[in-house]
Input
Amino acid sequence: MTTADKDTPKHESDARHFDPDALREKYREERDRRLRADGNEQYVEVEGQFAHYLDDPYVEPGFERAPLTDEVEVMIIGGGFGGLLAGARLRQAGVEDIRIVDPAGDFGGTWYWNRYPGIACDIESYVYLPLLEEIGYIPKEKYSFGQEILAHSQAIARKFDLYRDTCFQTRVEHIQWDEDEARWIVSTNRGDRMKAHYLCLATGPLNRPKLPGIPGLDAFEGHSFHASRWDYEYTGGDSSGGLTGLQGKRVGVIGTGATAVQIVPHIGASAEHLYVFQRTPSSIDVKNNPPTDPEWAKSLKPGWHQHRMDNFNSLVSGVPQTEDLVNDGWTDIITSLILSLEQEATADLTPEDIDRAVEIADFEKMESIRARVASIVAAPETAEALKPYYRQFCKRPCFHNEYLDTFNRENVTLVDTQGKGVERITKTGVVVDGRAYELDCLIFATGFEVGTDYSRRAGFQLEGRRGRSLTDTWSEGVRTLHGMHVHGFPNCFLMNMAQAGFTASFPHILNEQAKHLAYVIKKSIDDDLEAVEVSPEAEAAWIARCIEKAGANADFFENCTPGYYNNEGNTAPGAQKGFLSGQNGFYGGGSGSVEFIGLLEAWRAEGSMPGMEVRPRSDASARKKAARAR
Output
């Protein structure tokens, strides 16, 4: 290492084409002007006068069925990848009496609801799509489009016979534990009052659309909809584009995250004029999406899928690997960092040196992202507004080849709000910094609720023993063991993000949780248990461990530009600090999933379900005595 200037931190002396101090200051300035004291409260809950944004446009109206009052062994709430994986792993474990409940008209979860033009996944298909070997399916391209993912969801359901006893178009309204019967009572909008011995909550992290709390949100008299409920009746076309219904229309899009990045090129190609209202630009990298090589597919050996998933997850978690199987925009920053550190293998690197090396590698990556913007977008002012000034994983990175080019069209205008967001909405359009933009159609590409109260996101209240709600139980922070078990909620399994491992490819952690809950449920059935529940001591120990492990990532996310990763930048004392830090965060912050998965595997291998209180089914007198004591 060059040490001509002993005051220059290791690795920074190699950063010749940018000034790290200047970038740090620029990042701080951009973050600070986007800070809001209201955090997640800046968004409006989709209910009451806004409830129509939840309507299902993909089913025929008028569906009716008789209420159910029967009992099942396992009730799974949610038919996305979480519910599908839970059902599949339970079936593999030999558990047959399963019922899945979902408000949608079919399986798919977020891929059922999101069918907007251009919809695709930004994680490699060979990693993202679960159960590929079990289904015997190889994706068509490196990155799957939404139609393929929805079809794959349905294929999983068919493979594991999950359509057999599923209640679609059914919204859960309330779930309550009955201590005398040791059963969960599930009430729905269909008048159901079903019983379940075991309850699995697979409601997903991205299931409830959110709306920005902009003054006048309900004032607009043109046409409006949320991107997660795309209105093709109005726009024409389909998920491949061809939005002929927008010809002659002035369209506004609020939001510039992953959804907007995919829909903007299609709207720009069809609308008379498109206005994109931006608060914070996304990081837009190249997306190379070749078709699957048939010869490569033939060469795959048994176990390839889990190996590839583990390889990707390790790399994006910062764990070095001998090879990078995925080799894309997600993994190249860590690969570059590892190469950099290997070059300095003889140096005595302190933790501070390594942190600085990570930062410099991040600066390099984001400089290339900003250079790409400048090379594509013709208007200098627009190009500058589209440059993201923050660390790469402060916001979910995006990969697209047409988004930036769209701003070279004469009929497309980027309205940069200087980090403040839209000022207000009127009967006829949108106002930003005192200027009115007249619109015929307003599309909210504002994402989903993340970090709000679990029951609010799920859409129902969960009540455990003695009628205590999960909301009350978590009023001072999330309390679990492994993110899945909560004291006071027997036989209940949460496929939850908080206090569990974080993966960029979320189905990976869902798969690990599904394996885990299937093990616990099958063992409980085999051991003839009436109830299994985490002990207060084990729960407290896990919380303490999560808080300790999250500390290393706290500064990173608190210094990030506001977003759903860090509670929109609200880091005031007492604020819930997003889902990547603190008690409400992932295990180990954003890099602990490899360790977390290992802990689950070791826990199962131990064989005695350590930290869990078990109650034999035959011990009725002990159960009643315990109920009275509580």
